[in-house]
Specification:
The complex is a heterodimer of chains A (343) and B (257). Helices cover 30% and strands 23% of the residues of chain A. With 343 residues, chain A is α/β, with parallel strands linked by helices. In chain A, strands 5-6-7-3-8-9 form a six-stranded mixed beta sheet, sandwiched between helices. Chain A has a four-stranded antiparallel beta sheet with strand order 11-12-10-13, covered by helices on one side. In chain A, helix 2 crosses helix 3, helix 3 (106-115) packs across helix 4 and helix 7 (211-219) crosses helix 10 (288-296). Chain A is elongated. By secondary structure, chain B is mostly helical. Chain B has helices at 3-15, 19-41, 44-47, 59-80, 82-89, 93-127, 138-165, 168-185, 193-197, 201-210, 230-254. Chain B has one domain. Chain B is globular, with a radius of gyration of 19 Å. Helices cover 74% and strands 0% of the residues of chain B. The chains are: A alpha/beta (343), B mainly alpha (257). Chains A and B meet through helix 2 of A and helix 1, helix 4 and helix 5 of B. Chain A: Keywords: ATP-binding, Nucleotide-binding, Transport. Chain A: Residues 2-227 form the ABC transporter domain. Chain A: It holds the Pfam family ABC_tran. Chain A: GO terms for molecular function: ATP binding; ATP hydrolysis activity.
Chain lengths: 343, 257
């Protein structure tokens, strides 16, 4: 269990982490989600006692990291897979870690076997591929068989096989009753990996909920409806107390209406009672990225300017843009289309 | 975590990369090699004055290389992020860095000691018949067997510089330029330069080897009227080094890793 209370980190005039409080429960994978520059890594470094919080504190199973005796037995962390001397072999790297916390040296062989690096353990770590380095980092985190595990962007730059391997690995660790805290800026990845989410933007807590509740709350319910008499259809829907927007003809299909905060049942019944013909009636589920952007709104540190012609009113119904696949989008600098000038 | 455990950790870290081995080999070869060259090429007349302390003349080769090794042992940890892995494994940063300083100091002392004795032994093997290479005075013993002590303190000094500066290039430049240039060029300052020089750390450290005369009357090569005798000079250098190390430890503890 990890408990952060009022965690704050200030670098000069920049507030990297601002009064952040959250709890990470054991037995579950908790995703730590936020755009690049939101303060995820800084928070993780403060949890691990590498950075000193300006205010607040964070405890692991009730203790500060610095007060843990032989910390690798309690906490395993992979913050950066490149934190290995390139001319040192994987085995030597794990060996000094093991010795430092008086772990039996046979653990080195065990974790190498676990992550599948036994064959290359004698080679210099500088020659490893990113996937191999990531595995070495995980081996280091698992060395002390810790109850709490932290991973910072573990799937960054990995191929699909590596991503799947890490995802399954985390599920297994959580199933064993461990506390697993994984940061990512990839919401789609977190949706598959994490059961709980701690979402931050600009160093502030945006929400702490279960992943399913987060996606549901954020994506709302939107219905796309189309018929030969769009004008009358709109009148009927508005008369029924629902808000409808025009969706002009596009790649998605012919001109239609988008109804917010409604179900297909409600829209269908309204149309039926009015005796209107429908050619299309479909529930729209916004992509996870859109959900995320809606939630983090103005909390993206580096925002792009609004491209000409794509401008939407600030705070407009982002969810109304339908049909974006909930695939592997990257949230880095892609701020919501909004105010053109930087904040 | 006991001190012995941490020393073992730092020993594994130091010797599981290649550069310390190269540094040790280079220190040995250069130091002993130059003495062998000198012993072999010296004229018969000059050999009459080739004494035990003079076999330690090229000690600076090994001395500088050991300081570079000490700096690199720290700065590469910052460069590759392994210092963070270290502080995760050993949250008590002071203990971790003290263990590192201890291991490096011992390695440097051993190198200095072996190089010192080997230099003298080789010179004696080459010129033993003509040159007065036996031990006659306290200084003869001190220089040949004590040079490792000077290496030891200087290695700790370099570790402290490495922790404070964290960048390889800057820290190496400093440990090379300080003893070789700064402490010599200080004499350019009129009137007071000479007085300042006497109190500078490496001038004092060198006085540990240079003070006193050997039996044929060669005076040491340090400035005259040093404030301390040989052992006092070494202690003075060690005190300055300890203060610098304390500053480095406090800094490392305070700042974000």
């Amino acid at each position: 269990m990890i408990e952060a209370r009022g965690l704050t980190k200030r670098y000069g005039r920049t507030l990297a982490v601002n009064d952040l409080s959250f709890t990470v429960q054991p037995g579950r994978v908790t995703g730590f989600l936020g755009p690049n520059g939101a303060g995820k890594s800084t928070t993780m470094r403060m949890i691990l006692g590498l950075d000193r919080p300006t205010a607040g504190d964070v405890r692991i199973d009730g203790k500060r990291y610095a007060d843990l005796k032989e910390p690798l037995r309690h906490v395993g962390a992979l913050l950066d897979a490149r934190w290995v001397h390139p001319n040192r072999s994987a085995r030597a790297h794990l060996r000094w870690l093991a010795v430092s916390n008086r772990l039996p040296e046979k653990r080195v062989g065990e974790v190498l076997e676990l992550v599948g690096l036994t064959q290359v353990a004698g080679r210099r770590a500088g020659g490893y591929s990113l996937g191999m380095s990531q595995r070495l980092g995980i081996a280091g985190a698992l060395l002390g068989d810790p109850g709490v595990l932290l991973f910072d962007e573990p799937v960054n730059g990995l191929d699909p096989e590596g991503i799947l391997w890490i995802r399954q690995f985390m599920h297994r660790l959580a199933a064993e009753g461990r506390t697993v805290f994984v940061s990512s800026h990839l919401l789609s990845e977190m949706a598959l990996t994490a059961q709980d989410l701690v979402v931050i933007g600009r160093g502030r807590l945006i929400s702490q909920t279960s992943t399913s509740a987060f996606i549901e709350a954020a994506s709302g319910s939107t219905v796309r409806v189309r018929g030969p008499e769009l004008g009358r259809l709109r009148e009927v829907i508005v008369a029924g107390g629902l808000a409808a927007d025009d969706a002009p003809a596009s790649d998605e299909g012919p001109a239609a209406l988008v109804v917010h905060g409604a179900t297909t049942d409600a829209v269908g019944e309204l149309a039926g009672r009015a005796g209107l013909v429908l050619h299309e009636l479909a529930a729209q589920r916004g992509s996870l990225e859109q959900a995320f952007i809606q939630m983090t709104g103005g909390d993206v540190e580096y925002r792009t300017g609004t491209p000409v012609g794509v401008a939407a009113p600030a705070g407009g119904p982002v969810m109304a843009v339908p049909g974006q696949p909930a695939g592997a989008g990257i949230l880095s600098g892609a701020a919501p289309a909004g105010k053109g000038e930087p904040r | 975590m006991t001190a012995l455990t941490l020393v073992k950790v730092e020993r594994i870290k130091l010797f599981s990369t290649r550069s310390p081995w190269w540094c040790i080999a280079a220190a040995m070869v250069l130091t002993v090699g130059f003495v062998a060259l000198a012993a072999g090429l010296i004229t018969d007349t000059d050999a009459q004055e080739f004494t035990a302390p003079q076999t330690q003349g090229p000690y600076r080769f090994g001395f500088m290389i050991m300081m570079i090794m000490a700096v690199l042992a720290v700065t590469t940890e910052y460069r590759f992020g392994t210092i963070r892995a270290t502080f995760l494994a050993v949250p008590n940063r002071t203990s971790a860095l003290l263990a590192k300083a201890a291991v490096i100091a011992l390695v440097a002392a051993a190198v200095g000691e072996v190089a010192g004795v080997a230099s003298w032994g080789l010179a004696k093997a080459i010129r033993g018949s003509e040159a007065p290479l036996d031990f006659y005075t306290a200084r003869d013993y001190r220089v040949v067997f004590g040079v490792g002590l000077y290496y030891l303190v200087a290695a700790v000094f370099a570790v402290a510089i490495g922790v404070l500066i964290r960048q390889s290039a800057g820290a190496i430049a400093l440990v090379l330029l300080w003893p070789l240039l700064v402490e010599n060029l200080i004499l350019i300052i009129p009137r007071v330069g000479d007085d300042i020089q006497k109190w500078l750390p490496f001038t004092a450290g060198n006085n540990f080897l240079a003070a006193g005369t050997d039996h044929v009357g060669n005076a040491g090569d340090g400035p005259g009227d040093m404030p301390f005798g040989p052992w006092g000079s070494l202690v003075y250098f060690a005190v300055i080094t300890a203060a610098l190390l304390a500053l480095a430890l406090v800094t490392a503890k305070r700042r974000d890793a």
